[in-house]
Amino acid sequence: xTHYYLILFLSLFIxxxxxxxxxxxxxxxxxxxxxxxxxxxxYGELSAETGVRVSYNRHGDDRVAFPMELLYGxxxxxxxxxxxxxxxxxxxxxxxxxxGDLRLLGLYNLNQETLRIPALAVKLTLxxxxxxxxxxxxxxxxxxxxxxxxxxxxxxxxxYQFIGNARDAERDGRYEVLLGAQYPWGYPxxxxxxxxxxxxxxxxxxxxxxxxxxxEIGMRRQIAPAIILDAGIGTEFIxxxxxxxxxxxxxxxxxx
Length: 256
Fold this sequence. Notes:
CATH architecture: Beta Barrel
Order of helices and strands: HEEEEEEEEEEEE
CATH topology: Porin
Radius of gyration: 18 Å
Number of helices: 1
Distance between the termini: 26 Å
Number of domains: 1
Largest sheet: 12 strands, antiparallel, barrel
């Protein structure tokens, strides 16, 4: 029932909270790609993010996901988040994250970018077993680097997830690495659209299996001070026979 309360919580904030601005140049995981930057949302800001992700699998089940997340700028250089993801065909999910799991996160920026060093952040995510067929608390620790190059930025994300209750033949932990870039489309005449891309690899859940690796491209567009639309597509070109040959994401971020 946890995800139903989360949906209600999102609805109440969308209809009742005062509006603040959000920044399309800031990247959060899943909006629309997996890569994220080293900067939290502003102190005191509240952001609601949601969307739809469609995956076409090579041999397994095609799936639609409905992610939702609230982010809050809890302090200077720190935001906290509450979220969940609902999946179609939830009984067939092999990944540690199950449909309806409650997700809590915190992202803290350790330093701003300087001429010599990139911006650095750490992110901690806890997935609680509130979903379908879910067991154990999963914990992920991630390091995030962001560096300005010309008018664009590059990002390196490296994380490790500790699986709370791994099944037989499954790893009790796995790593992921992502390298991404973004560029302000139309700059300097206008700056309402950011284009982005990344390459990624995720360690296989089971032993003796190939990592799922792929590429994504996408964009974020600011259509109002408090509304950002995003869209992205990607493919896993290396990995298991059940890997996603194609996936697409569309979503919206709202500032309050």
